[in-house]
Amino acid sequence: MADTLKGRAPRARAPQAGAALDARRRAQRRKRRLAVLFVLPAVLLLGALVVYPVLFSVGRSLFDASGEQFVGAANYTEIFQDPATLKAIRNSTIWVVVAPVLLTGLGLMLAVLTEKVRWATAFKLVLFLPMAVSFLAAGIIFRLAYEQNPDRGVLNAVVVAAHDAFEDPAAYPTARVREQSGLAGKTGGPYATEETVRPGSPVSLGFVGVAPDAVPADARPAKAPAGGDGIGGVAYLDFVPGGGGTQGKVDPAEKGLPGMTVEAVHDGKVAATATTAADGSFRFDGLADGEYTVRLPASNFAAPYQGVNWLGPALVTPAIIGAYLWVWTGFAMVLIGAGLAAIPRDALEAARMDGATEGQIFRRITVPLLAPVLTVVFVTLVINVMKVFDLVYIIAPGPVQEEANVLATRMWLVSFGGGNDQGLGSALSVLLLLLVVPAMIFNVRRFRRSRS
Amino acid sequence: MSARTTVERPPAERAAPRPVRPSTPGRPRRRGRLAKWLGSGAVQAVLIVVALIWITPLAGLFLSSMRSERDNASDGWWTALTDPSQLSLDNYTALFEDSGIAGAFWNTVLISVPATLLVVGIAALAGYAFAWLDFPGRDAVFLVVVGLLVVPVQIGLLPVAKLFGAVGLFGTVAGVILFHVAYGLPFAIFLLRNYFAEIPREMLEAARMDGGGEWRIFSRLVLPLGRPAIASLAIFQFLWVWNDMLVALLFADSESQPLTVALQSQMRQFGSNIGVLAPGAFLSLVVPLVVFFAFQRHFVQGVMAGSVK
Prior knowledge:
The structure holds two protein chains of two kinds. Chain A has 14 helices and eight strands. In chain A, a hairpin with a 5-residue loop joins β1 (183-185) and β2. Chain A is α+β, with helices and mostly antiparallel strands. In chain A, strands 1-2-8-5-6 form a five-stranded antiparallel sheet, with no helix packed on it. In chain A, strands 3-4-7 form a three-stranded mixed sheet, with no helix packed on it. By secondary structure, chain B is mainly α. Chain B is built from 16 helices and no strands. In chain B, α5 packs across α15 and α9 packs antiparallel against α12. Residues 1-30 of chain B have low confidence and may be disordered. At the A-B interface, α2, α4, α5, α6 and α8 of A face α1, α2, α3, α6 and α7 of B.
């Protein structure tokens, strides 16, 4: 309405000469009104839900938890004093330092490698796939993968398999002895004969507490040991499935315990070591005459290696960063790959003709030419890493949430998740905004330059 | 030379080759054949291992989602590879019979589709106005919009929650949609304005000469020309909203919560809820995966362009 009113004034002043001009002006005014209508929905929404909230948060951050008491910058100093918030800052720093570097490096490596294979498109598709997945789903995926029990968590299954491939697993963690079996020791080992033995006399070491399916498949029925040279003996399971047999004696149905380490100890020193065979038998040959104790070291009874406690307090942040890598590597790779494809082939060919090795070409030509793209990838990742929320919130199990917190999750917990200190929460959200600004300015600048 | 340039490519140059599409530049090399064969063999092996590592977690989720609660508690999903009889659709049938999850899935649709359409519509109008219409303060307002690109959603949570609480939007689907639209707009306007700005001036002048009103020019000329950018934007925005958890966690109540929030509330008893969580997570993946495979190119471009957010 205001437009129409104002519009009458010039016409009154120059009624005739301005007739054509007036029509044009009116058209222009109509266009302007239209333009305002075009931007109005956007401006209203942005004003009410983005601009106003930013101002509100800045203001709110200067008040205490209840919102009644003006406290100035106290909430901001609190950020750097509250131990839980400090931990979040520490973790956010780790994230920002580690994740973008790893992602850019990994992306560069894979982008270079994919250039050399024919199925690059398929490979890029596979790596880009996680970008379609919500962080919630990624979180559930990795909660499954990081499960500590190696029977259920795929990562620990691999770790334990690798560990056991290099180091023989202790075979009999549950084994124990009966009372008056002639063996002394405690569960978990070591066990040793109560009485000393001399070369020539046999030893039988009876154990119980080994589940039938925990006895190695290659175990054979044990035989009562015979005398002979040195000290011979047998380690066996003193238990007949279904009952029967005599305790303390090797019965025909009883199996030997293969793979046990047995030591002959004389005067506190290990004089000889043997390993039990499939039927549980062992023999120390060539022992000097004397009194020996036969001992089974604890390594036979150690609890099995259980893998890594990925989601424990010590490793939870690296573990979540790992999940983040899974999501974002494809992004870095595809972006860097596009930059790589734009490098003039002539430069590379010329260098090759001059006898440069692939390594030299990579370091001296590819990387410098890619520097702008690498920077963009890096900065983009920094922005996104700074705001990481869902993945931490989902993957970190309740008890270690505190250890895994980053700024965004801490802000959430302080404001809504029980903390209920909206002053501190607002200060944290303002801090988050301030941290993202420089990276953002860089990206917008670059974006605009790329257009002109 | 990044993906972003692709999205901004002016319509007039659309015939130019796209730099972003994953492609294999076949490059003849002058090296010893044996060395080449060995080298490429090693490279292939490395890449196959990497690809397997990337597929494994997804496969694990998928197989876990089809195994019974008891199987999942006793051993790992990989045992299903040798014993496929473990797999069944029982978890999924149970999931759909659970009205909570089914309703949450429906809520996700109800939130994502309008939030995407609104962002695209409002941003296209504004983008066109910022690019080609003259109004007072145009450049200053656009600069503010660019500045708003930085604002992380976290800063809006508390104030908007109070605002929505005052007008009765808190805990409603409409509230979640509005929040997503507002925080999607700066990037959307930025992207579309820049794309529209590169439409050749002559094309617009010609349309105006023919007596086309601004609305007609916008709907008949600018929108069709802007289709590549709009498609990328729509896909990015749709995925963003579909996959969101944070915003809905605060603004939705138990009636209006989307799938992500419904699943999140089951995370506390992770071990005993795998029978719901795994199929639920997979369900939430299906739509993005379909979008991914159906619109690979726009998907990649949309994600690349959106990463500036």
